[in-house]
Design a protein that fits this description.
Blueprint: H1 2-23, H2 29-53, H3 58-77, H4 81-106, H5 110-132, H6 146-165, H7 177-197
Helix pairs in contact: 1-2, 1-4, 2-3, 3-4, 4-5, 4-6, 5-6, 6-7
Length: 200
């Protein structure tokens, strides 16, 4: 229980810090933390709803809750979608990594530990993309949002492949994970293609 609390607390702190750092150049700290808290409330409500009605869907319901919280704040403060979504993805990755790490300890799960390692690799890739994406000749627009969408596309595509192979991870909906993750991958790619067509 103590380990769960400590890792959860660390995940929230990392989320708030990364989210703030990604947006601090364009928005006030007050707005940033209001948006971040709204996202975390969405995640918490998703956890409660999934526990009561859809226990196997806790990841997806929580993710939906975070998106709803984000979209409400985007509408309230007139924020830019791609920039805010990117902050959500990059700030959420450490949180997800710690979730896998916690499950690997609590349940002695090798699969969750491997998922933790993969998520760490994805975090490092995301920051490499963030430093270099404007140099990609095939990404002509150079607009902010590439890192978040590309990271999301990789994350969900990895989930799709793992689900198809048949490996079970703590956040998977066993029967529908491949389909749900594939849809999320296609949506991420679609948004990325659309962003790439826009000019600065």
């Amino acid at each position: 229980m103590l380990v769960n609390f400590l890792l959860g607390f660390l995940g929230v702190i990392l989320f708030l810090f990364v989210f703030w750092k990604r947006l601090k150049e364009d928005y006030s700290s007050d707005i940033i933390f209001q948006v971040a808290i709204s996202i975390l409330v969405g995640v918490a409500l998703g956890q409660v709803i999934s526990k009561l009605f859809f226990p196997d869907w806790f990841f997806w319901v929580s993710f939906l809750g975070s998106l709803i919280g984000m979209l409400l704040m985007i509408a309230k403060f007139k924020l830019r979608f791609h920039e805010t979504f990117e902050a959500l993805i990059l700030a959420g990755m450490p949180f997800i990594s710690l979730m896998f790490f916690n499950d690997s300890i609590a349940n002695s799960s090798l699969n969750s530990f491997l998922a933790f390692v993969v998520s760490l690799v994805l975090i490092f890739l995301a920051y490499w993309f963030d430093l270099n994406y404007k140099n990609f000749t095939w990404y002509r627009s150079g607009k902010i949002g590439f890192t978040g969408l590309f990271t999301a596309a990789i994350f969900f595509s990895v989930r799709t492949v793992i689900a198809i192979i048949g490996i079970t991870v703590v956040s998977f909906v066993v029967k529908f994970e491949a389909f749900a993750s594939a849809v999320a991958t296609l949506v991420s790619i679609g948004l990325l293609v659309n962003l790439g067509r826009k000019k600065e």
